[in-house]
User: Fold this.
Amino acid sequence: MKPKMLSRRGFMRQGANLVAASAVASSLPGMVAAMGNVTVGFIYVGPRQDFGWNQAHWDAAQKIAAMDGISVVEQENVPETAEVEKVIQSMIELDGAKVIFGTSFGYWDSLKAMAVKYPDVLFTHIGAIWKEGDPTNVIGYRGYTEEAHYLCGIAAGRMSKTGKIGFIGSKPLYFIYNNANGFVLGARSVNPELTCNVVITGDWNNPVKEAETTNALIDQGCDVIIANVDSPKVSIETAEARGVYTCGYHSDLSSLAPNGFLTGAEWNWASGAEFVQAFLNDDPYPNLKRGGFREDMVALSPFGDAVPQEVRDEVMAAKQGFIDDTLQLYTGPLFDNQGNQILAEGEVKANSDTPFKLGIDWWVEGTIG
Amino acid sequence: MTGTGFMNTMEAVAINAAAFVITMVLFGLYVTWLGHNPLDVYYVLWLGSFARQISIESTLTNAAPLMLTALCTAIPARAGLLVIGGEGALVVGGVATVLVGVLLSGAPFLVGVTLMSLAGAIAGGLWIAFAGALRQYRGVNETISTLLLNYIAIAVMYHLITGPIRDWERVLKTSSWSIPEELRVGALPLVDVHWGLAVGIVTCLILYVVMRKTTFGFGVDVLGGNQRAAQMAGLPINKMVLICCFMGGAAAGLAGAFEVTAVHGFASESLVVGFGYAGILVAFLSRQNPAAIILMAIILGGVAASGGLLQRRFDLPDATTQVLQGLLFMVVLASNAAYGRLNIFQPAAWRTA
Amino acid sequence: MEGGDLGWWGVVIAVIGGAIRVSTPYLFVSLGETLTEKSGRVNLGLEGVLVMGAMSGYGTAVITGEPWLGVLVAGCAGAFLSLIHALICTLPRVNDIAVGIALFIFGTGLAFFLGKPFINPSAPRLPDLDLGWWSASPQVQSALQINLLFLIGFTLALFLAWALKNTRWGLVLRTVGDSEEAAGALGYNIAVVRILGTVAGGFLAGVGGSYLSLYFPGTWNEGLSSGQGLMAVALVIFARWDPVRCFYASLVFGGATALGPALQSVGITANYYLYGAAPYFLTLALLIYSSSPRKALEGAPGEVSISR
Assistant:
């Protein structure tokens, strides 16, 4: 019974839910807000147990909830409409929230508007496009996941037998371009002949299309697949069933593919807890925090059993390169897949060059798509 | 208002109130089964929907688009059509608003907003009128065609905003070009709710007058009651159906226009959040009466608004409000069977007395 | 053609494989809807039934480790939800399409509500039948990896087509759906027949949902169904209420869904949203082409509001 059901984290979650549910049931409404000294509100765009994007934030929320004097209120499936502002206001006025975490891109305008209206509440946003002139009680923070994709790419390039790998993206947005480019650059750093098929599904979450795309890519001979969608679970399980390799995204998904999992690109949203702490202590906090491995804002999933030691060493060496800032993602000569020269020989873009990364709407050479 | 008309209204009010109470009892049983105290849950529902200024504002913000999308089902329904295309008409209206809006930079505020609203309304109106025409001239079922048109509208909008009309400067979200900042519509005086609410209420009232107080409206009622009778009376059936579809679609298109001018400033996936489908529910709760739509949209908006507080206070899933809405919808539909059964609302019961 | 580069053949194989993989939920829901509509009712709530089936089937498989038990539970959950629809529609002056929309909202809401704990765990999947053993190409082998439910659906389509024509049950069902007057004159209990037709339809739609969660794509989350249950209702109309045509129509739908990803995987990446909407454009075009303003569609049950 129960072959691989209820991975440990899943089981612990359910347990936690039951406990929380019974605890709340016995308390009167209105008690929640009074339990901690400071209430922190989390707003998710999807279900927080999605094994992906939202869950990565939920993990961070649980860490914050464990801090002393903090209670967390959460609301999920909040669409990026006029409703967001009302949810924020409701959290502040009815729950007494002092910190609001808006964990979706489209909340940005609403968060800014509310930051003006409530100057002593702290707001955070995961887009990190804060600029001079925006309210100072807003923090933007985000990790450079393209660095972690570069490392996944190295593993993929070494493990691929066909020299073809596949990347599934949700929407044609700058960070998807960057992640795909990182993946391809990493793979071609160890196998210059390799090509990568890129497919954009057009939806954040569409399991049928993701599974179908995974199959189509495998039919084209791709033997390493990475999916940049809200929940890569379906794609990874489909690829595992067809016996090809996969890399994860958002959080540690190695349990989904015991045979074919290589490694994965993860977020480290722990900065959120630092912001809350700074806010509590009345310490200064940054308005913009971006970073990769060097700033400890992204992470690499544990290697799967399939990855031999020499590949692991190669990947870890590259990771050290990012940490030491000796390895730059975008270095010349660099061409896009239409043959246009992006960077000249000897030209290098710093890993922290956010404006350059925000402007990327092209795939690097070697990408088909 | 005639005596019978008054009695009919009272009957509808009484039956809907009873349906609402029954739904609440069923919902109370459901949350009790889940281990919550139903009285606490009722209290939080009230707190989150109407008990505070912010709750009322949330409720009205939710209600604004629903009033308009509900008309998209209600008006054609009076002519006997079951249109479920509000979602698509809203999207089409939103896109048309953007396309006209970007041409209007420098236009005076009122002129600009009027032109954008008209663009949205006309686009949405033509979209649903197309389904009406397919039905009248090709015999294509309008429920199915409007369902398909929803998917098509959404796909076309996504296509446009990721390519032809995409604003690449907006890096966090695939979205269309923005309308000029000076043509953005703000909030109403006194309550922090956008102008779409006022437009929704006024549209409902105008269409109430059109459908209930004009020859056209009486003709539509004849048509909706019995197509053959309408034929024998020599009514221009095709034309009436097309006009009803156009008016309904125009209302939903107007909802799209205000999502753009008052909320977002551009078209994006945020137009596709289920306002159209929720509108169907509102239309049926209102028994296709445009004036009742105002009230029912506010009630449904309140349910949605309190959903957040249910999550935060009881850790109930967000789908709780959807369960409640589904329950309410089914009970109200079932309560249709009660019409004409309650003697006190029959004129005869009073005449003999 | 060993492994590697199939190019355009890869597209063809992906579309065929996709047709088989994606079609099964459409097939079950449309067969279920055919039964319901043959009895004279429309159940637009099968989308909610499908989602509920997907959730309950997955949950059962997670808890017991038995995917086939999940399929059974999914069918029963679907039958139960449809029973609510059937009973409400038995009341006078109740619009069956509206009740369907209510059931759609209620069913998906309930499934999302109860399904939260099952998003994370992995359930055992239904097993495959390898019908591609004769081919050396792994792509062909994969495309012909077929689930038993697909074959059951195919057999069921043939059986229903035969049974509707040739059995007494089929005759009673069709009579009730075609003319209440005739059915009344023959002494059939119209309400009971319609309840049975709706419940049987709901059972099949629930099973279709379990295919989504337990086989392909084989997961449970809130984006699992992208309207398959609603589309299947449209599919019944252009299949002309004929179970065998439902099977063909489902295959066409599945193939059309697979076309976009297959083209993108060979580098034809423009207009993917429009390719994605291909099934909807196709259905609408076929409906416009095949409908007629003067007479009801051939094969349409006379009492069904959606055919008029």
The longest helix of chain A spans residues 8-26. Chain A touches chain B at residues 17, 20-22, 24-25, 28-30, 32, 41, 47, 73-83, 86-87, 89-91, 93-95, 105-106, 108, 127, 129, 171-174, 202, 358, 361 (CB under 8 Å). Residues 1-36 of chain A have pLDDT under 50 and may be disordered.
